[in-house]
Each structure stands twice: as C-alpha cells, then as structure tokens.
Design a protein that fits this description.
The protein is α/β, with parallel strands linked by helices. It contains 8 helices and 7 strands; from the N terminus they run αααβαβαβαβαβαββ. Helix 2 runs antiparallel to helix 5 and helix 3 runs parallel beside helix 4. The structure holds S-adenosylmethionine.
C-alpha cells in the first residue's frame, strides 16, 4: 500500500527540513544497505519532529519502545540537556548490533541506554518518570506499551506513537481483510480517543503519529 503523503510532497518536505547530521546520515545509509525492512526507520523528517518535541518540551528522560538501528533514539538524544538520557528497548540482537555501533560513534553515546530483550521484560528494571515516551515497536502490543508508558509518565509528559495510520489501513474500507497489526492499531486508536485519562491528536505525518498527554 502506498504511503499516506504523496511522494513528491514527501521529497519536498524532506529537502526543506534542516539537513541531518553526519552520524544520522550514516545510520540511514547502513539501514538501507543492510536491513530487510529499512522502511521501519523513522528517518529524516520524523526524526526532526522527535528532536523538536524533546527540545520544546524540555524533556530530560526519554523512553523508546523499538530502537531498530538507532535513528530515532539518536534524534531524540540530540535535543536532551546535559545529563539527559534515552532508554531504548529492542528485542532483536541483529538490530541492536547496528544501533550500538552508531550510538557509540555518535556525539551522544553517553545519553543512550540500549536494553536488548522483549520491551515489557526490559521495562521491569526501568523506573519512571519519563518526560517523553516514543512507542514504535510491534503493533499488536501497542495497548500494553501505552499502559506501561502511562504508568511511568511524568505529570506533564508526552507519549508519541508511530504508525497509527498504518498506510491508511486503519480505515475499514481501505483494508477489508485486516492483519493482526491493522486490527491492533484500529483498536488502539479507538481506545485512546475514548480514554478519559488522556488527550490525544493524530498527526497525518508520514505513517501517522499520535501525540498523547494526561487529561
Ligand atoms: C519500526 S522499528 C523501530 C524504528 C525506530 N524507532 C526508528 O525510528 O528507527 C520496530 C522495532 O521494534 C522491535 N521490536 C519488535 N518487537 C519488540 C519487542 N517485543 N520488544 C522490543 N522491541 C521489539 C523490532 O525488532 C524493530 O527493530
């Protein structure tokens, strides 16, 4: 299924978003060359959005579900104040190996704490509060990640959730034969919109990005 935003508009926005630094360009290049699903990477425009959210919210502690090759973790790390940290959770050793090298070679090695294992298990050793949580791991677990994030969210914290429009497949008519991820994302979007504990907005950026705060 095609992306949500027309390709020429994506290219235009990409070319007019502040250029990526060398260490992120290197992550993107290796991800395209060596991984089977480079489309999982947030990339330049969304990475800048994440950096902007961390910067403008003044976040000091960030939690990420789904490191992949490290692009989003390093984007967010760049906007942290001194002493700030990103705890990022990844189940795949193959992905973590790539992320680990790029984190070590970046200017932000001391700000990124990569934990390998199923996210909810790794989280047992991780205490909140977090000022910003980025949810971007396996889609069927989004509901569980949201609850875990909310438990650890600072009073004025922000939860950012990726892929919530899932190439448009969340709209029933666009995919009448939905897979597990599509069903989970439909359920997640419906549940969060009705949840009186929070306020949310879905941004039609890239594959859909939902912002959530406490009500
Ligand atoms: C969409 S990618 C993350 C992209 C990354 N945030 C970025 O912007 O480059 C999803 C990642 O979640 C990981 N993942 C899947 N299931 C997981 C789980 N149960 N616990 C932790 N990570 C998981 C996958 O291995 C994959 O690397």
């Amino acid at each position: 299924m095609a992306g949500l935003v027309p390709e020429d508009i994506e290219r235009y926005a990409d070319a007019r978003t502040t250029a990526e630094p060398e260490h992120l360009r290197a992550v993107a290049e290796e991800t395209r060359e060596r991984t089977r699903s480079p489309g999982m990477m947030s990339g330049h425009v969304e990475g800048r959005l994440l950096e902007m959210l961390v910067h403008s919210s003044g976040a000091r502690r960030v939690l990420e579900f789904g490191t992949f090759t490290g692009y989003s973790a390093l984007s967010m790390a760049a906007a942290l104040p001194d002493g700030g940290t990103v705890v990022t959770l990844e189940v795949s050793e193959e992905h973590a190996e790539i992320a680990r090298r790029h984190i070590a070679a970046s200017p932000y090695a001391d700000r990124v704490d990569l934990r390998v294992g199923p996210a909810l298990e790794s989280l047992e050793d991780v205490d909140g509060p977090f000022d910003l949580v980025f949810i971007d791991a396996d889609k069927p677990s989004y509901g569980l990640y949201f609850e875990a994030a909310l438990e650890r969210l600072a009073e004025r914290g922000l939860i950012v959730v990726d892929n919530t429009l899932w190439s448009g497949r969340v709209v029933d008519e666009r995919d009448p034969d939905p897979d597990d991820s599509t069903l989970a994302l439909r359920r997640f979007n419906d549940t969060v919109a009705r949840d009186e504990r929070v306020v949310c907005v879905i941004l039609t950026i890239r594959d859909g990005v939902t912002l959530i705060r406490r009500a």
